[in-house]
Design goal:
about 160 residues, alpha/beta, five-stranded mixed β-sheet, two-stranded antiparallel ribbon
């Protein structure tokens, strides 16, 4: 039986696999997450999921005995991919753009054993309540927006916005 590796440092992804009782080993990877020109959000996350799975597989000493799972999620609104904010002003801008509106949250997943790669993407629609400036500032002060596409994660305090 092949060992499953999760090519991600995401606590949420580890939690999800743990919830369903799947044994795995975490294998964080670093890849270039720059969107390609005119790349659709669903294609973007599927490409990144494949790249993470391939990078994870390449980092193993004996890749033929492993299956690697890669995944990526982003936020998209008005045809724009909202990545992880680098600073507070960028996070504020993202949250203002999402305020009172519907946006999409595509997730791509890929599984590879080095011989075959299976990949897919799924998109959820999310509606945000209208956010006042003080709501945004309070949320920024929690530290949650950092390292999150679109400056939020629905599993945390941002659940109150949805």
């Amino acid at each position: 039986m092949s060992m499953l590796y999760l090519a991600s440092g995401s606590p949420r992804r580890r939690e999800l696999l743990g919830q369903i009782g799947v044994p795995f080993t975490t294998l964080p990877t670093v890849i270039d997450e720059t969107p390609l020109p005119n790349e659709a959000a669903a294609a973007y996350v599927q490409r990144l999921a494949c790249a993470k799975a391939q990078a994870g597989l390449s980092s193993l000493a004996v890749p033929g005995t492993a299956v690697v799972l890669g995944a990526d999620t982003t936020v998209s609104i008005d045809g724009l991919i909202l990545g992880k904010p680098r600073e507070a002003d960028e996070a504020r801008h993202m949250l203002r753009r999402l305020s009172g509106r519907m946006h999409e949250v595509p997730t791509g997943v890929a599984l590879t054993d080095g011989t075959r790669t299976q990949a897919t993407a799924s998109t959820s629609r999310v509606w945000f309540t209208a956010l006042a400036g003080e709501d945004i500032e309070r949320y920024l002060a929690t530290g949650e927006p950092w390292d999150k596409a679109g400056a939020y994660a629905y599993q945390g305090r941002a659940a109150a916005f949805i």
